[in-house]
Write a structure and sequence with these properties.
The protein has helices at 15-27, 38-48, 64-72, 88-96, 109-124, 136-139, 173-184, 188-195, 199-206, 215-229, 243-264; strands at residues 7-11, 31-35, 52-56, 79-83, 101-104. By secondary structure, it is an alpha/beta fold. Residues 129-150 and 235-239 have low confidence and may be disordered.
Length: 265
């Protein structure tokens, strides 16, 4: 039994590709909704409530892997990743993010149609998703504020444990690069023009998906991107203890031992 009335959400920043896929799927009887980036998809997810999501992997601002993880927190709709990368590491990353299937470009519409029907059949055998109870704000990671709760009353004699403050964690390189790019208001496409590094490689560096960048270009791409954003690749080493501060106490101890030995002889 085919699911011709299913609604399919197509998420791809290339409008030519998404329009072509939409036209092909509509000719097969599906309903389609096309969106150009991951944030739009998350904002519209609770409204559209698609039966299946076709998700491009490499998109600006938010990768398909991250969008897939966010969708999985609130929806059980099948997700098929579409990508030009056929490395095993990319496939494992997508499936571990919660995708149901993984199709490498280019592909025939007959193959896509078969994968969609297989995913919809598996989805029909699972319990219904709870995505309808989530709001659009909750899907994109900004849940509604929780109701205020009165503070618990404590007895005057109760002791309060005091813990030593923990040092803040050192920011990761990818997060630091992404924050600096956002602070400057630079898009990945603009950074690509200056760094001479493909924008999808820059995005993979920000997400620390190192396997996506070819090993022969990885170090040069990281150095070029960090230099462009003015982000140091190495943290400054702690200053060394002066030699005099170590030798002086040792000499003092030796002198004291000599005096004691002479005194008792």
């Amino acid at each position: 039994m085919e699911h011709k009335s299913a609604t399919i959400m197509i998420v791809d920043d290339d409008t030519a590709i998404s329009s072509l896929i939409s036209h092909q799927l509509r000719s097969l009887g599906y309903r389609t909704v096309c969106l150009q980036d991951g944030l739009q998809a998350l904002q519209r997810l609770a409204v559209v409530q698609p039966d299946l999501v076709l998700l491009d992997v490499m998109m600006p601002h938010m990768s398909g892997w991250d969008v897939c993880r966010q969708i999985r927190t609130c929806s059980g709709a099948p997700i098929i990743l579409l990508t030009a990368k056929d490395a095993d590491a990319d496939m494992m990353t997508g499936l571990s993010a919660g995708a149901d299937d993984y199709i490498v470009k280019p592909y025939r519409i007959a193959q896509l149609h078969a994968r969609i029907e297989a995913a919809l059949r598996r989805s029909a055998q699972r319990p219904r998703s709870r995505s309808a109870v989530y709001t659009a704000a909750e899907v994109v990671g900004t849940p509604s504020p929780a109701p205020a709760v009165a503070p618990a009353q404590t007895s005057p004699t109760a002791s309060t444990a005091v813990t030593a403050p923990q040092p803040p964690p050192r920011p990761r390189l990818g997060a630091t690069l992404r924050e600096e790019r956002h602070r400057r208001g630079v898009s990945l496409y603009q950074a690509e023009q200056v760094c001479r590094v493909r924008w999808d490689y820059l995005q993979a560096i920000e997400q620390e998906q190192w396997e996506y960048v070819p090993r022969t270009h990885r170090q040069a791409a990281i150095r070029a991107y960090a230099a462009y954003l003015g982000v140091p690749l190495r943290h400054p080493r702690p200053s060394r203890t002066p030699l005099a501060s170590v030798v002086a106490p040792a000499v003092a101890v030796v002198v004291m031992l000599v005096v004691v030995v002479i005194y008792f002889l």
